[in-house]
Amino acid sequence: MVEDMTVLTVRRWIDAAISVDHPCVLCGAPSRGLCEACAQDLDRVEVATPAGLDQLVVLTGYADVGRELVRQVKLVGRRAPLVPIATALAGAVQTPIDAVVPIPSSRSGLRTRGWEPPAHLAALIARQLPGRPAVRTALVRRDRGTQHGQSRVHRLEGPDLRWQPGSRSIGARVLLVDDVMTTGSTLANAAATLRAHGVSDVRAVVIAAAP
Ligand SMILES: [Zn+2]
């Protein structure tokens, strides 16, 4: 039931975002949260695809303009740019998808922000994929202590992402959604969990990736 409420909240927000013009979060120009010119300025980045993924789509490098874009969304809480970001990412996925699965936020991130950027982005992307696949919260996160208290080894291992108890089969082709990729261990862990539960094709989209 909690999931249904989340979907409704997300839908209301999406409708508001589409019907109202928002200034570009990077330059202030009238747009839908991110203007055409600033989108062109985003750094393209080449990163290795994490283990277990059939495809990785990255909108921008996590530096300069890309870092500021993520800061505006995650830390300032500007959600409007997620609409054009979703359009760009969904357009790059050239294969049928059965379910879209957001990477769950850490408990501390959720406490700080009060919302989960990957879950919102996943809902927007699912609406733009052929057949409008369902958004499924198939993964549950068990944090290995706090980020600051972690050793470098633990950070490289990434969070422990387990199959959500009670989740049914979600189909063979899954698209993972996250905001920032650093080492790629989070996506690799998620892919391993999904493959252990019958998913055979795992792809991922992220807003920004560290080069
Ligand atoms: Zn702009």
Task: Describe what this molecule looks like in 3D.
The chain contains 8 helices and 9 strands. By secondary structure, it is of the alpha/beta class. It has one domain: Rossmann fold (3-Layer(aba) Sandwich). Helix 4 (82-92) packs across helix 6. It is globular, with a radius of gyration of 16 Å. The chain starts with a helix and ends with a strand. It binds zinc ion (ZN). Zinc ion (ZN) is lined by residues 24, 26-27, 29, 35, 37-38. Residues 24, 26-27, 29, 35, 37-38 line the site of zinc ion (ZN).
Specify the CATH architecture. 3-Layer(aba) Sandwich
Strand arrangement in the largest pleated sheet: 3-9-8-4-5
**What is the CATH class?**
Alpha Beta
Query: Which structural category fits the helices and strands?
Result: alpha/beta
Along the chain, the helix and strand elements come as HEEHEHHEHHEEHEEHE
CATH fold-level label: Rossmann fold
Described by the principal axes of the CA atoms, the overall outline is globular
* Biggest sheet statistics: 5 strands, parallel
Q: Note the beta-strand portion.
A: 15-25%
How many structural domains are formed by the residues? 1
Which bin fits the share of residues in helices?
25-40%
**Uncertain ranges:** 1-6
